[in-house]
Amino acid sequence: MPACGRQALCEFGILLEGQMISLREIGEFGLIHRIRKWMTPSDSALVQGIGDDVAVIEMGSQSLLITTDILIEGIHFDQSWIDPYHLGKKALAVNLSDIAAMGGIPKYFLISLGLPKNIPLSFISSFYRGLKERAKQFHVDLIGGDTSLSQKLIINICLLGEGKKENLLYRSGAKVGNNLYVSGTLGDSALGLKLLQKRGNRRGPRELIEKHLSPYPRIQLGQAIAKHRWATSMIDVSDGLLIDTSHLLEESGVGARIWEDRIPLSKSYRKWIPSVSKDPYPIALSGGEDYELLFTAPPEMKHRLSSLALSLKTPITYIGEILPKKEGFHIVRKDGKKYLPSRFGFDHFRSW
Ligand code: ADP
Ligand code: MG
């Protein structure tokens, strides 16, 4: 997930082939790419290791799904705009979203906390109240964790889930000729955060701020798409549409085009975006933390997906199409001009 708070200074380096390379040069995803090469797995029951929304381990007809996400104070959140109750809800929601992106069923979670020594007990109890609310809503149980003293508040959740082996949707299944779809609307959370930062406690657009503080994981939608096998690949939009599309394309070995004017924008987003940007699209394309589902499906699934959107009261928008890899990835403007934005989305080591 992206960091949205104060920018942390980072000049770490890694020694690679005798050369000092900074994380700034390779970025978060360049680092993960290298870790993946260093740590080749050996167990044959491992269906998916590094490289998807969750790891998948074969367990008979069911597969075990495992995902983890970390939230660090000053990087992912700032206590001046998020209260402990919402923080608890959000910490679980971001993990639930990764299980949603596989079409899986979330089951159990562990939580590890790094706590500053002056933190009041009332803060922790409110945090657990938020956590419990989301846990009850999605029928997941807390089964353990770890607690430590820390200079800043750190929250790490590891969520376990399950799914039918043949129904799971990976980032790697997109095929040339598939349509590209996204659920809900994009950019609301990033704009909500910008407005929170700009306006502080002054009243702002509730829907946008709510989308940032209290994202709702698309578990039901993910499961429905997976159960019917209507899609070929899926990912959740946590770091921004462009960057998450590029992950899906990379894992599938394909290219894509997205039509800019098809990007779904909420009424509230359209109303408030002029206060921060003349062009509505950059934030919708690269702002993170929407926690919507991005997926590909053969064109003949269009009507079924429209019916599903109606029955779940969740918008599903056809935003682009999958192309051969050699055609790359680009956005098409309303006037037909193609471009690839220079800023893709959030990268922990490149965003400052
Ligand atoms: P998401 O945005 O869905 O949470 P990430 O972009 O954080 O996914 O991670 C992409 C992949 O890299 C995932 O498979 C994740 O488990 C893996 N990953 C991330 N950080 C590390 C790390 N430090 N070591 C090993 N694997 C990692
Ligand atoms: Mg994800």
Proportion in helices: 25-40%
Number of beta-strand segments = 15
Structural class: alpha+beta
Radius of gyration from the alpha-carbon trace, in angstroms: 20 Å
How large a portion of the residues is in β-strands, by DSSP E? 25-35%
Low-confidence stretches: 4-12
Spell out which ligands are present: adenosine-5'-diphosphate, magnesium ion
Distance between the termini: 16 Å
Order of helices and strands: EEHEEEHEHEEEHHHEHEHHEHEEE
Mean pLDDT: 92
Largest sheet: number of strands, sense, barrel closure: 7 strands, mixed
Helix count from the secondary structure assignment: 10
* Shape category: globular
Determine the oligomeric state from the structure: single chain
In what order do the strands lie side by side in the largest sheet?
10-12-9-13-11-14-15
Features:
binds adenosine-5'-diphosphate; six-stranded mixed β-sheet; 10 helices; globular; 33% helix; seven-stranded mixed β-sheet; 352 residues; binds magnesium ion; alpha+beta
Give the SSE layout.
Layout lengths: L12 E4 L2 E4 H16 L7 E3 L6 E5 L2 E11 L11 H17 L4 E11 L5 H17 L3 E9 L4 E11 L14 E5 L4 H12 L6 H8 L5 H10 L4 E5 L3 H12 L2 E5 L7 H6 L8 H6 L5 E6 L4 H11 L3 E8 L5 E4 L5 E2 L13
Parallel strand pairs: 6-7, 11-14
Antiparallel strand pairs: 1-2, 3-4, 4-5, 5-8, 6-8, 9-12, 9-13, 10-12, 11-13, 14-15
The site of adenosine-5'-diphosphate has 11 residues, from α1.
